[in-house]
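*** Residues and shapes ***
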Amino acid sequence: MIIRLKLLFCTLFCATALAAWGADAPPDFAAWLAQLKQDALAQGISQATLDAALAGVAPLPQVLERDQLQPEFVEPFLSYLDKRLSPKRLERGLAVLAANKGLLEAAQARYGVPPAILVAFWGLETSYGDYVGDIPIPAALVSLAFDTRRGDYFRGELLQALRIIDAGDVAAADMKGSWAGAMGQVQFMPSTYLRYAVDGDGDGHRNLWTSLPDVFNSAAHFLRELGWQPGDSWGREVRLPDGFAWETAQLGMKKPARDWAALGVLQADGSPLPASDPNGAIVLPQGHAGPAFLVYRNFEVILGWNHSINYALAVGLLSDRLLGLPPPRGGRDADNRPLSRDQVLDIQKLLTVRGYAAGDPDGLPGRQTRQAIRAWQKAAGLPADGYASVGLLEQLRKAP
C-alpha cells in the first residue's frame, strides 16, 4: 500500500510538473535539445540520425517517475533469491541452455565464459529475452539527461546511443529497452554496448535485440574484459563453525581455501573445502543467521556487471542450478522480514546517537552504515555481521 501511494504521489507530481511546463516539454527544453544536437553534430553524428531519434522528443513522465521512486523496502536475500530462481525460470533456463548449446559453446571457446553463466545473466536480465523493455531509448535518455540530478552521465549515454543508431546497428524506432536506458536481451547501457558488444553472427552489425550469437558473444566478451577467469568457479555455499569470527566475513578479507579450512569452514554438505580453490572471501547476504558463501575472483567479475551482492549470488546460484547442483541449504530459519527505508534511517540515527559513525542518514545500508553496525554489535557482544535487519533495529531500540 505504501509503495502504491508513493507511486501515485510521484505520478501526480511528475504529471503536474509536466503540465506546468506545457503540453510537451518544459520552457528551457528546446534550448537544451538544440545545444545537444549541435554537440552531437560536432562529434560526427549525422543529421539523419538526429532527425530519426529526436524528432518530437520530450521528457517522458513515466521515466521521471521510475527514476524518482526509491525502493521502499530492503528485500531480504532469501526472498530476493526465491523470486529470481523460481521453478519456472529454472525450467525455462534448462530448455534454452539445451536449445542454444552450440552458440553458447562457441562463445565459451572464444571468451572462456561457461554457457550456464551466460544463460543465468540472460535469465535474470530479461527472462531469456522475453522482457527487453518497450520504452524508446533516445526518449528515455533525453528525459534523464535533461534532469539535473544525474544529467551529465545520461547525456553521455544519450550521445553513445545516437552513435549506435548512426552506425546502423539498430534503427531509431527499434531502439527500445528499460526506463534507465539499458538495451537488448542482456540490458547493456549504450556505453557498454559500444565498448563490448560483438557481431557474433557476422552480418556486419551488433544486434542485442534479436541476434542470439551477438547476445551471447557480447555478454561473454564483457565478462572476459571484466576479468573472468576461465575454469574457475564463482564461489560455493559453505558451513561456518561455531565461534566463527563474523567480522571476517567481508569481501575485502580474502584467504586461501586452506586457511578457511583451518578455521573450520566446510562445504555446505559438510565435506572439506577443495584445496585447489582460489583465494576467496566469506559473504553473508542475510547476516549470520542466513546462508554463507565463499566467493572467488569470478564473483567480483559478476559484481562488475551489477554491483549488488544479491544479484551476483543469484547469477552464480542460477548457473549452479542449471548444472544440476542443489539450492542453498542453510539459513532458511533467518528473519525474513523486509526492512523499510524509514527503519534503516532509524538504525542510522540510533547508531550515530550511540557514537558509531553511520554516515549521513539516507535510509540505505551502505558501507559506512555496515561498519558502524559491526562496531556496535561487537561492543554489545553480538555476532558482528554488519547486517541491517528488523531484528537489529529492535536490539538497538532496547539497548541503553
Observations:
- The beta strands are 73-74, 135-136, 176-177, 235-239, 266-267, 281-283, 292-295, 339-340.
- The longest helix spans residues 2-21.
- The first strand starts at residue 73 and ends at 74.
- The CA atoms of residues 184 and 209 lie 4 Å apart.
